[in-house]
């Protein structure tokens, strides 16, 4: 009996009820908000509430005015020394000191002093402050970290590079030589050029060779000299006629 009632009341598989509830969606909104009139928009813009600026307590934000700190007497003394150094010395090299010991630094200073090259120590902050107001402002980028300066009144590039080869903890960053800023590679290229004494000797030897050859020709017999001059005139005339022939052909 119970099984019969359950089979009649419970829906069978694949059976659909006679009535179904269908939920219709909401209708589309056909009324939209009309734009405000231009006069009303202006009135709302004019009468809009603007809150007053909030006052912050003093010291909450950093001051916009920059405080210029004046240099003390020691800084001014270092800047005067740097100015004199740049005026008197033709070579000023910047070298980075990578954990060099005091004994190695003393040995390096002694080797450089043999070639009239002096080692100078200045704080990077003072050097950058001095260079920012001078024509050497581009050198300020080299003074980062532990640095030292090699200065000499005359350019001693070869001697400086030869001495630095024995100190691997010292790295050459750049130099100002004869008012010209050079990189490390530029300094190496400059060291490969012959010195001014060698160039002057080559020029003098070339000029003396020409003058000696002219004097030798003048000491020869006048007939030989006149023969050479006639040969030179013939060469000049033949070259001139050869150049004039193509021009005549083009004109015809």
From TrEMBL:
Transmembrane segments: none annotated. Keywords: Ribonucleoprotein, Ribosomal protein. It holds the Pfam family Ribosomal_L10. GO terms for cellular component: ribonucleoprotein complex; ribosome. Belongs to the universal ribosomal protein uL10 family. This is Large ribosomal subunit protein uL10m.
């Amino acid at each position: 009996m119970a099984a019969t009632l359950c089979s009649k009341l419970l829906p069978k598989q694949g059976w659909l009820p006679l009535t179904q509830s269908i939920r219709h969606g909401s209708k589309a909104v056909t009324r939209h908000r009309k734009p405000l009139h231009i006069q009303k928009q202006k009135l709302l813009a004019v009468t809009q509430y603007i809150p007053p600026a909030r006052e912050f307590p003093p010291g909450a934000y950093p001051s916009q005015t920059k405080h210029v700190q004046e240099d003390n007497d020691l800084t001014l003394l270092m800047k005067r020394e740097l100015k004199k150094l740049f005026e008197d010395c033709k070579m000023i090299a910047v070298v980075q000191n990578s954990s060099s010991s005091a004994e190695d630094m003393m040995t390096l200073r002694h080797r450089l002093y043999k070639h009239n090259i002096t080692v100078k120590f200045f704080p990077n902050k003072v050097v950058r402050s001095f260079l920012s107001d001078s024509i050497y402002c581009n050198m300020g980028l080299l003074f980062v970290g532990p640095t030292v300066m090699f200065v000499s009144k005359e350019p001693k590039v070869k001697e400086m590079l030869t001495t630095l080869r024995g100190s691997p903890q010292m790295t050459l960053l750049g130099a100002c030589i004869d008012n010209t800023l050079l990189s490390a590679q530029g300094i190496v290229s400059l060291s490969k050029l012959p010195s001014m004494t060698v160039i002057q000797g080559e020029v003098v030897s070339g000029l003396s060779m020409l003058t000696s050859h002219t004097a030798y020709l003048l000491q020869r017999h006048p007939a030989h000299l006149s023969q050479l001059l006639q040969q030179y005139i013939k060469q000049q005339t033949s070259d001139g006629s050869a150049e004039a022939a193509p021009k005549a052909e083009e004109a015809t």
